[in-house]
Request: fold
Amino acid sequence: MFQRLFGRERHANRAITEALYAQIVAAARQTVFYSDWNVPDTPLGRFEMLSLHMFLFQHRLRGEGGVAGEVAQVLIDEFFMDVEHSLRELGIGDVGVPKRMKKLAKMFYGRTAAYDDALERNDHDALVAALARNVRPDAATWPQATQLAGYVADVSRRLAEQPTESIVSGTVAFPVAKTI
Reply:
C-alpha cells in the first residue's frame, strides 16, 4: 500500500500526467493559431486554445472508463491547477482567484458542450459558429474559424485512431495545424 502511495507508481503516474499535459500545451501553442488564424495572442486567447485541446483530449477518452477515465480526470485537474497558477502569475490576488476560476470553469464546460455537440452531430457549421463565438467574440466575422473547425475535426479523427493504451502510457499525438 505505501509503495503504491509513495513509491515508484506515484512517480510514474506523475511523469505520465506531465508528459500528456505538455503535449496538450504544445499543441495549443502552435504558432499558426496566433499568427495565421488570428487567435488573440492574449491570456484569454491562449486559454481558448488550451481549453480546445483539453476538450479534444477529454473527448477522445470519454466513455473509456477504468484507467483512461482516471487519466482524463487527472488531466482536467492539472489543467485547472495550471489555469489557477496563470491567474496568480497575472497578479490576481487570493480573493479574486476563486471568482475568476469559477467563471473560467463555467466557460470551459460551456465550450466543451458546444464543441462536443457539433462534433457528435458532424455539424461543421455549428462547430465554426461555436469556435467563432468563443475564440473571437469581439469580431463580427472571423473567416479563420473555418480553418480552425477543420483542424478540430481532423484532430478528433486522429485522436480516435490512437490506441488508448498509448495515451494512458503518456503519449498523445496532435497533428500540426497548417494553413490552407
Notes: Residues 2-168 form one domain. Residues 1-8 have pLDDT under 50 and may be disordered. The radius of gyration is 17 Å. The chain is about 75% helix and 0% strand.
